[in-house]
Amino acid sequence: MGETSGKPAHLSSSVPDPWSVPVLPKPRRPHPKVVVKADLLPAVSVLSTAGLLGFPLAWLWSRLAPPQRMRVINDHGGLAPLELESWHRFDDLAIYGFLALGAGLLIGIVTWLLRERRGPVVLIAATGGAALAGWLGTTMGVSFANGRYEIGAAPAVGDIIAKAPQIESTWIMLAAPLMTSLAYTLLTAWNGREDLGRRLG
């Protein structure tokens, strides 16, 4: 009753087993900190470069979006769409949405490839740049389209004219930044490293 594994009770608790392997505590690795100061200048470059994508986005939309064929119904310039032409209002919005999603995906992937600058600072800049591109795309796109389908002379009653495509919902501007943040977040989760692979080698 007073012995454990053939040893006296007063020795079993104070004398370590010569065959036991000591378990050393695992060294704690310091968690990587968020780099802010060093990433500010690259973040500004990312924001401005991503925002410039709004110009090709606007030009491409103005070339792809279909106009509405309208009939002049009175002397005051009243217009009425031809049969099924009003559907192009949705087509214009959908085309811009797909183009904006593609631009947002491109911004997110290219920003992620800036390996030494990965982190929340550059992510915020990329999302802001995508939002700027979305705003430029909607405003400049409508301007490009109005210039393309400009009517030179006043039409007469009964004439059929092509009305420039329009973007009738401002919420579509969120498509590009949402896709940018989603793409960058998915790539971050797929990476799985604490420092996101910032340290090369």
Automatic annotation (TrEMBL):
The chain crosses the membrane at residues 38-61, 93-114, 121-145, 171-190. Pfam families: DUF2567 (PF10821). InterPro entries: DUF2567 (IPR021213). This is DUF2567 domain-containing protein. The lineage of its organism: Bacteria, Bacillati, Actinomycetota, Actinomycetes, Pseudonocardiales. Keywords: Membrane, Transmembrane, Transmembrane helix.
